[in-house]
């Protein structure tokens, strides 16, 4: 039996806007992504957004996106924009990039 799409490794680039810098948003993302079993990174962008690149199973990434829509307690998420693509396979863990 062939692997289903649910098992395929995919990548999502997530741009999160609102009050998401200086509120432990990246650490929140790393902790949750690691718990779910995803790889990738989170970083602050100069325009005040946080960029998250996550690779893994689509269902697991969707679980992370649900958490990103809420964020940590001090965050105020206004918008979450997601772009899907094929997994690059370049990541070994989930980290904060500067």
Observed structural traits:
single chain; 98 residues; alpha+beta; Alpha-Beta Plaits; 5-stranded mixed beta sheet; 2 helices; 23% helix
SSE blueprint and pairings:
Layout: E1 9-19, H1 25-36, E2 39-44, E3 50-57, H2 58-68, E4 76-86, E5 94-97
Parallel strand pairs: 2-5
Antiparallel strand pairs: 1-3, 1-4, 2-3
Helix pairs in contact: 1-2
Instruction: Give the CATH class.
Output: Alpha Beta
Q: What is the global morphology?
A: globular
Helix fraction bin? 10-25%
Q: Note the run of SSEs as H and E.
A: EHEEHEE
Record the strand order, biggest sheet.
4-1-3-2-5
Q: Could you tell me the CATH topology label.
A: Alpha-Beta Plaits
Structural write-up:
The chain has helices spanning 25-36, 58-68, and strands at residues 9-19, 39-44, 50-57, 76-86, 94-97. The protein is α+β, with helices and mostly antiparallel strands and 98 residues long. Helices cover 23% and strands 41% of the residues. Strands 4-1-3-2-5 form a five-stranded mixed β-sheet. The protein is globular. It has a single domain (5-97), classed as 2-Layer Sandwich (Alpha-Beta Plaits). The N and C termini lie far apart (43 Å). Helix 1 (25-36) packs antiparallel against helix 2.
In short:
The chain has 98 residues and is an alpha+beta fold. Helices cover 23% and strands 41% of the residues. The protein has helices at residues 25-36, 58-68; strands spanning 9-19, 39-44, 50-57, 76-86, 94-97.
């Amino acid at each position: 039996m062939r692997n289903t799409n649910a098992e395929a490794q995919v990548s999502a680039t997530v741009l999160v806007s609102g009050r998401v810098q200086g509120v432990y948003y990246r650490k929140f993302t790393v902790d949750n992504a690691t718990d779910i079993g995803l790889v990738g990174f989170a970083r602050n962008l100069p325009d005040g957004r946080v960029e998250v690149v996550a690779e893994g199973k689509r269902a697991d990434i969707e679980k992370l996106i649900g958490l990103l829509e809420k964020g940590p307690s001090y965050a105020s998420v206004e918008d979450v924009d997601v772009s899907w693509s094929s997994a690059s396979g370049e990541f070994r863990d989930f980290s904060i990039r500067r």
